[in-house]
Amino acid sequence: MPKPNYAAAPAILPASFALVPQEGNDRDGNGIDDKAEKRLAVKFCPSLVLHSKDFGVSPKPIEFLGAQSAASIWVRVKNERGERSGEFPIADCFDPPLFPALQTSGNYSGLKNQNYLYFGRLPKAAKAGQYWVSPYHEYAGAANTPAEWYRHYRQHAANFPNTVYPHLFKLEDGKTVIQFWYFYPFNDFINNHEGDWEHINVVLSSDDTLSAEIVWIDYYFHYKVIRRWTAGSHYLVTDQTHPVIFVGGYGNSGCELALGNGPGSHGSYPAPGNWAKVEDYHFCAGYIAEEVDGAGLYLPHFSFDLQILPNPEAVDYDLRPELSWLNAELLWGHKRVKSAGDWLPLNVGNSPPQSPPYNPGWNRVGGDRHSKKAYLWYSAKPPLPPADWTPFNYIAVVTNP
Ligand SMILES: [Ca+2]
Ligand SMILES: [Ca+2]
Ligand SMILES: [Ca+2]
Question: Do 232 and 35 form a contact (C-beta atoms < 8 A)?
């Protein structure tokens, strides 16, 4: 990442400098006062309704995987012939140590999802050799199946507050976008993977904390996005300013062979119901549909811990090594796991995602009709939210106020 060249800075600042927010007010340089960012994110923070069959799996902080610390990163090791030699935490007893400078500083922001050459002894190995090591985040250690993931979640979830990662930016016409990013520890659907980043865009009329209003909301699920304009009929709002997200859901492919379709895609929907054609592949009875029942736990906006995400290039990772995860190009889970959709003649997506800045939706609104690199506009008829909806288990589930 390029460092600012102070030597080349002009001795006399241009007159327009006065228009730029002072350092301290906008330290991340996105044109929005940092205090206003927090206030806007709190004011428009969504409330979530989980799918009833997902055992209450809710968005957690990245600390659930230990990602604030370089010591929690794992590597997949292959020998010179490309054969797998195992997976280990980088802090394990490699001789000599793996990535020593990185382990000392804690700054792992430059790590990538690639093979690095290592010569030495693997943990518990007798002899030294030459290996390829590829780093990644690991959830629940060597446990890599949905049953084990849920068990690990049940054992540890209470130690971590429900968390949302808001990220703000401005559109050219002054509208202000709050992306609310959610990290679910794993995805259990027709595809399976550890680490599941999901988001919506709440687009505001301005960045004024008192007068800003919601103009529209982009809801994202799978590789799709739907834009909703009208509160009350196309999407719901609680406590005047807090949009509701109905969290997906069970994937229905119509294939009797696809046993093990899981109940937790965590896609973000504006309404419960049966969402047709959430994926573009077609087999068995047709396109994959998703059942979003909206009958699980209700997680009100005020039960979330908010952690604002700056642009990754605005962070000095030597000073803030605990934010390395934002910039590191690592996968958020075991490299590849088994899923119900493995028998299909296509890639259903069993690899974990990377951090939000590498998501095609980062710093963008809406979708596209063509590009494979962007989200596609949802084209089927969407369900509408029930007119008489109220959160029905409002108090009982506030476990992390
Ligand atoms: Ca700012
Ligand atoms: Ca694992
Ligand atoms: Ca997902």
Answer: no
**Residue list, CB under 5 A from ion ligand 1:** 26, 28, 30, 32, 34
80 touches 130 (CB < 8 A): yes
Per-residue pLDDT tens digits for 111-143: 999 999 999 999 999 999 999 999 999 999 999
Maximum pairwise Cα distance, the chain = 72
Number of other residues whose CB lies within 10 A of the CB of residue 97:
15
- Name the strand (E) or helix (H) holding 42: helix 34-43
152 alpha carbon to ligand 1 midpoint, in Å?
36
Instruction: Please tell me the distance from the alpha carbon of residue 273 to that of residue 292, in angstroms, as a whole number.
Output: 5
Kindly state the tokens that stand for 170: 């401005």
- Per-residue DSSP letters for 67-117? TTSGGG-EEEEEETTS-EEEEEETTS--BSPSSHHHHHH---TT-BSS-EE
Report the residue count for the chain. 401
Q: What gap in Å lies between CA 275 and CA 56, rounded to an integer?
A: 21
Cβ atoms of residues 94 and 122 within 8 Å: yes
Going from the Cα of 38 to the center of ligand 1, the distance in angstroms, rounded, reads 9
CA 179 to ligand 1 center in whole angstroms: 14
Which residues are CB-neighbours of 245 under 8 A, at least 6 positions away? 46, 47, 48, 49, 200, 219, 268, 269, 270
Ligand nearest to the CA of 311: 1
Q: What are the structural domain ranges in the chain?
A: 22-64+145-377, 68-136
279-294 confidence digits (pLDDT tens) = 877 666 678 889 999 9
Residues in a beta bridge with 244:
47
Q: Quote the radius of gyration of the chain (alpha carbons, Å).
A: 22
Predicted pLDDT at 66: 97
CA distances from 161 to 186, 385, 399 (A): 16, 28, 8
- Helices (runs of H) and strands (runs of E) counted in the chain: 4, 21
Tokens of 178: 């709050």
- Ligand nearest to C-alpha 140: 2
Distance 234 CA to ligand 3 centre (A): 22
Please state whether beta strands 192-204 and 214-221 pair in parallel, antiparallel, or not at all (unpaired).
Answer: antiparallel
What's the gap in Å between 154 CA and the centre of ligand 3? 19
